[in-house]
Structures are given as structure tokens and as C-alpha cells.
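C-alpha cells in:
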């Protein structure tokens, strides 16, 4: 029996999953590790923690099977993290990861050195603190002794690749988030590297996502239980891998993830860039194609905040019933009408990325009156998050990304009530997939394509991804939501200057 392995090197932990060739989960193991915050706004992790977790999870899923039957290994992972290695391949400093916010000055410097227009034209994105280039510039400025020792720069999942294969390699989807890649031509940008004075030899070789990038070494065999010579494919960044794991690999296909943040992701065979830089354009895991992606900062976070702040009774009742608290919150929200008796919510608890790119934006309940009850506020939170996701979708459509097929993922996507709301607000069908493995399944499918099990990524998805629970939009609901969405769209512009003044107040 042949197997595929998908590994997802995430922020909270690494999950490794053993699949059969039809995408069924046979064994799964997750090992968590810490996140360090040496200063306010900083975020770092130890690459050795990732490797120890990867080795432990691989040993767990390969126990009891013939490892020679594993056709290939695929990697997915958190994007943008900076891993610096010396000439011996040793880690120089902790990895500065995606959610670190220390590089505002470096972003301004990158924009000045490259030029805002050229940066957008080449890398398809404005300079952002989360991306890798600004982290490299920060180390160069603040830790020159570490920068001088650096011989190799890798992304988190690509460090695991190095430990498994001895190869310094990356692939186009994850490399897109470094802000050093020529997104159109799918290669490192000589112009950007020259202007930022980053030596190109520091960077790994770039592959397409389903390509084989190396093979398991004898040393890795001893650590992981994998057989020497097993191929390891390029894999993908977490969202690009999730797209493969949900079958979003052709024009017209898209997915919405409602986790802590929210993502609206659409596949496109034609590269498109938002001139205002409100959404990301990256190479996707399908060779020669791209994806566009909008991000809502406070999606599931908004509902969790409301639950933890106002719903202690529901949490206690759910505990006694043996139910998830969110199940009770859904039932409560359903009792409120669409529009929540003229109450709207702006989900900007952590600022916003799409469409406003405003770190000063904050959450708002608008239209609150003495008649409103908890269920109205609860539904308003869910509606506000959905409108924010609609903002993302509308921008993607404005970039000629057609969307006729939408999948829902993440914790919010597991809610039938919220999925129906998405379908009604989007005005298109919304479904889920049977597998809950997302990025790990996507990585495994890419490994299958690289190993020749599938002739293409699309064929791998056809064999492994199955849809279920389709929600069709209800015309009456869509019309009702549309009227409220028009009011929602006017609230941020009306508040923008007030957000700036609020941020300038001296006291916290």
C-alpha cells in the first residue's frame, strides 16, 4: 500500500499526517512549541523546536507501517519567518516570525530604496512588516554581527526541508511572501536584491510547488523513521497549501477561512495586482499560476472576544451539556433577525488589512439602542465579520478573479449558520470539504504530484478532495443583507480621521 505524508509547520505546532492515495487520513500527530516575545510587538521561535516537533511527529505516523511504501513527503508552513544559518548550517539566531511587528522603519526604507511603484510592480505587494525582506534589513541594521555570519536564509518549512534532505531550497508560493521574488517571472528579483544590498547567494533555489527538491538523507532516516531516498517536494505556504487541500486549483474557485483572522483566497491563471496594495498577489502551488488573497484581521477573534467577555453563562451551559460553546452561540444568534434591529459591527479589533490597511482602526458597534439584547450584538458580530470578508471578495472580483465556487474552512466555516450567512452575503454557493486537514492534505497532494502518483496537482485534488454540505444563497436574504452592507461600507470612511486622533491620545 502506498502512502503520502503532509507536514504543516505552524505557529502553535507542527502537524504531520499520513494519507492514503485517496486523501483519507490514516494517522495524525501534532506537537506544540512556544512562541517568544522578548519585547512588546516582537515574535520569535526557535527553529530547533520546529525540527524536534517534525522528527517526533514523523516517527509517530510512520510507526507500524513499511516506510518504503511512502511515495513522497510534502511541506506546508507558516510564511514570512526569517531563518538564518551559518556556513555549517547552524541556526544563528531565533527566527523572527510572521506576526512580528518591529520593522516599520525598515519597511519605509525598502519603499524608499526600491520605489513604491517598482516594489508593487515586481513583488506585487507594498512593504509590510510581516514580510521577510524587512526582517533581513532589521538584522542587518541592528545585529550586524549576526548578518555577517549568515550564509543561508530560509523560510520555516524550508528549514525542515534542509534538515530532512540537506538541500537549501524553497518554492514559489512561500517565496512570494519574502518580498524578494519577481512574482510575474517566479524568480528572485535582481533589482530588489541589488537595491536592498542582499547577496543573492544567501537565498535558496526556487522550485515550483510540486517539484521534487531533495531526498531523505541517512541522518534524517535515523531521526524520523522515513526511508533514505524518499522524495520531498516543494510544498507550499500555509494558505497556498490549504487551497490545494480544498481543491481551489482552477479559475472560478475560492475559499474563505474564518480562524482568528479571516482570509478570502481566489485562484487565478492570470496575474493581477491591486494598485492600492490592499490584497496580496502570490504565486500559487499550481505551476505557472497565481492567487489573490484578502485578509480580515479580527474575524474569529471578534466572536471569541465576545464569547469570553459576555457569554460566561453560555460557556458554563455548554460545559454541562458537553457541547462546544459556539454551538450555543449559533443558536442564540439565529434568534435575532438579519440586520439585528439596525445594529452593525465593525470587526477592527486589531486594526485592519483588507481593504483599509489601517493599524489604527478599532472595533465599533453602530446603531446600539436600549432595545438591543445580547443575541442582537452576537449576530451583529458575525454579520460584521462577514461584511469585512465581502469587502475582500469584492476587491478580488475587481481584479478579474472570477468566483463561482466557494469553500468555507476554519472554525467559523464549521458553523452551518455562518456558512449560510456567507452564501447569502456573497451571493454564491458555499460548501465545505470532508477532510479537516487543509494544509497538510494540500502538501501531501503536492508530494503525490511530485512523486508521479498524480499527473498534476488538479488530478491529485480530484482523487483526494471531496465536498459536502452545500449552502445556496437565499435571494430574499441576499437582498436584505445588501442594504445593510451598503451602510456598513460608509462607516469606516466616516470614522477614519477619528481613528487617527484616537491613536494619538497620550494615555492608553
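Residues out:
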Amino acid at each position: 500500500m502506498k502512502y503520502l505524508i503532509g507536514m504543516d509547520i505552524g505557529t502553535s505546532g507542527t502537524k504531520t499526517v499520513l494519507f492514503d492515495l485517496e486523501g483519507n487520513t490514516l494517522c495524525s500527530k501534532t506537537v506544540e512549541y512556544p512562541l517568544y516575545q522578548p519585547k512588546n510587538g516582537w515574535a520569535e521561535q526557535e527553529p530547533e523546536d520546529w525540527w524536534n516537533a517534525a522528527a517526533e511527529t514523523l516517527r509517530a505516523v510512520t510507526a507500524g507501517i513499511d516506510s518504503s511504501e511512502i511515495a513522497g513527503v510534502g511541506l506546508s508552513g507558516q510564511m514570512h519567518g526569517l531563518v538564518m544559518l551559518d556556513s555549517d548550517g547552524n541556526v544563528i539566531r531565533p527566527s523572527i516570525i510572521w506576526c512580528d511587528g518591529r520593522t516599520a522603519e525598515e519597511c519605509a526604507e525598502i519603499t524608499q530604496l526600491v520605489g513604491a511603484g517598482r516594489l508593487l510592480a515586481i513583488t506585487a505587494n507594498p512593504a509590510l512588516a510581516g514580510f521577510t525582506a524587512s526582517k533581513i534589513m532589521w538584522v542587518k541594521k541592528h545585529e550586524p554581527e549576526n548578518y555577517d555570519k549568515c550564509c543561508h536564509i530560509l523560510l520555516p518549512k524550508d528549514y525542515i526541508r534542509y534538515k530532512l534532505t540537506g538541500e537549501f531550497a524553497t518554492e514559489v508560493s512561500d517565496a512570494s511572501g519574502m518580498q524578494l521574488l519577481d512574482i510575474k517571472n517566479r524568480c528572485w528579483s535582481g533589482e530588489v536584491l541589488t537595491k536592498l544590498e542582499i547577496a543573492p547567494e544567501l537565498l535558496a533555489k526556487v522550485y515550483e510547488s510540486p517539484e521534487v527538491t531533495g531526498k531523505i538523507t541517512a541522518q534524517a532516516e535515523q531521526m524520523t523513521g522515513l526511508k533514505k531516498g524518499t522524495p520531498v517536494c516543494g510544498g507550499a505556504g500555509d494558505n497556498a497549501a490549504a487551497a490545494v487541500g480544498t481543491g481551489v486549483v482552477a479559475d472560478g474557485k475560492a475559499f474563505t477561512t474564518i480562524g482568528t483572522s479571516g482570509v478570502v483566497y481566489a485562484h487565478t491563471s492570470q496575474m493581477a495586482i491591486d494598485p492600492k496594495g490592499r490584497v496580496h498577489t502570490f504565486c500559487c502551488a499550481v505551476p505557472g499560476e497565481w492567487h489573490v488573497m484578502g485578509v480580515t484581521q479580527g474575524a474569529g477573534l471578534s466572536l471569541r472576544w465576545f464569547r469570553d467577555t459576555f457569554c460566561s453563562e453560555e460557556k458554563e451551559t455548554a460545559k454541562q451539556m458537553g457541547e462546544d460553546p459556539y454551538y450555543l452561540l449559533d443558536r442564540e444568534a439565529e434568534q435575532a433577525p438579519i440586520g439585528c434591529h439596525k445594529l452593525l459591527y465593525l470587526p477592527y479589533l486589531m486594526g485592519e488589512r483588507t481593504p483599509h490597511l489601517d493599524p489604527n482602526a478599532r472595533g465599533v458597534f453602530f446603531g446600539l439602542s436600549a432595545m438591543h439584547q445580547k443575541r442582537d450584538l452576537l449576530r451583529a458580530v458575525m454579520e460584521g465579520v462577514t461584511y469585512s470578508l465581502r469587502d475582500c471578495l469584492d476587491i478580488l472580483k475587481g481584479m478579474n478573479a472570477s468566483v463561482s465556487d466557494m469553500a468555507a474552512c476554519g472554525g467559523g466555516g464549521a458553523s452551518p449558520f455562518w456558512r449560510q450567512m456567507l452564501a447569502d452575503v456573497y451571493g454564491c454557493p458555499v460548501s465545505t470539504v470532508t477532510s479537516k486537514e487543509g494544509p497538510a492534505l494540500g502538501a501531501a497532494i503536492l508530494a503525490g504530484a511530485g512523486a508521479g502518483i498524480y499527473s498534476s496537482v488538479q488530478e491529485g485534488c480530484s482523487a483526494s478532495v471531496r465536498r459536502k454540505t452545500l449552502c445556496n444563497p437565499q435571494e430574499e436574504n441576499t437582498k436584505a443583507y445588501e442594504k445593510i452592507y451598503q451602510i456598513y461600507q460608509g462607516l469606516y470612511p466616516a470614522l477614519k480621521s477619528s481613528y487617527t486622533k484616537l491613536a494619538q491620545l497620550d494615555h492608553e
